[in-house]
Specification:
The protein contains 8 helices and 8 strands. By secondary structure, the chain is α/β, with parallel strands linked by helices.
Length: 238
């Protein structure tokens, strides 16, 4: 084996955050117990102590000048880690739903080159109403992932470059649009079963009203129909 082949890929972690002072410290501490990868918290103009707590917990914080939303914050983190020379980027939420001890399970198939993108899936965590919404999204988009709204993902360098591109900046959310961009680039997506928890504190910062949910569903379904492509390169991890 050559010295070059034995070099481990450089991994970085992105956590988009908006008013997550109650949970962000615990999430970062749990990550620190599991790994020593750099953790970048992209603060989406929080009005609480998210920035202070994340910094004290040992994360590097990138404060945004204007609110970009969850995907805009995530893309900012991906771009930053690419600039820092990272080969692999992992993303997870700041609210405590994603368990850091599952990160190694997500990283493994990407590091070994089995897939370009690993998506943490846990369909049993959601309500029947959300499962119906997922079914509608899958039907219109042609996507076959089990948990298409999961933000617990690992991207290899090629996938990260696709998502750092200006065309991905036009997206509002990190689910269907992002997956369709990856699919259009011919990348391989892999569902990886993981355990997830209920949101640690408070309520969703994105879907805070039924009006927002309705707008999201309409926009997502239209996007799926317009970009539909059958025959994805998605596999389920056995």
């Amino acid at each position: 084996m050559t010295a070059q082949a034995s070099v481990s890929p450089k991994v970085g972690i992105v956590i988009p955050a908006l008013n997550e002072a109650d949970s962000i410290g615990k999430v970062i501490a749990a990550l620190r117990n599991q790994c020593h990868y750099p953790v970048v918290v992209v603060d989406d103009c929080s009005e609480d102590d998210t920035v202070v707590i994340a910094s004290q917990a040992g994360a590097q914080v990138l404060p945004l000048a204007v609110r970009l939303g969850a995907w805009g914050a995530t893309q900012t983190g991906i771009r930053y880690l690419l600039q820092q020379g990272c080969d692999i980027v992992a993303t997870l939420d700041a609210d405590g739903q994603h368990e850091p001890d599952s990160l190694s399970t997500l990283l493994e198939p990407v590091i070994k080159g089995y897939t370009d993108v690993a998506i943490g899936t846990c369909p049993e965590r959601v309500s029947r109403l959300r499962l119906v919404a997922w079914m509608m999204m899958k039907t219109t988009s042609g996507l076959r992932m089990e948990d298409i709204t999961s933000g617990f993902r690992v991207y290899n360098h090629q996938a990260s470059m696709v998502l750092a591109d200006a065309r991905a900046t036009l997206l509002d959310y990190q689910d269907v649009g992002v997956l369709l961009r990856l699919q259009a680039a011919g990348l391989k997506l892999l569902d990886v079963p993981v355990q997830m928890q209920e949101r640690g504190e408070g309520s969703s910062r994105i879907f805070h009203s039924w009006l927002v949910v309705g707008r999201y569903m309409l926009q997502t379904l239209i996007l799926g129909l317009s970009k539909r492509k059958l025959g994805t390169q998605t596999e389920n991890k056995k």
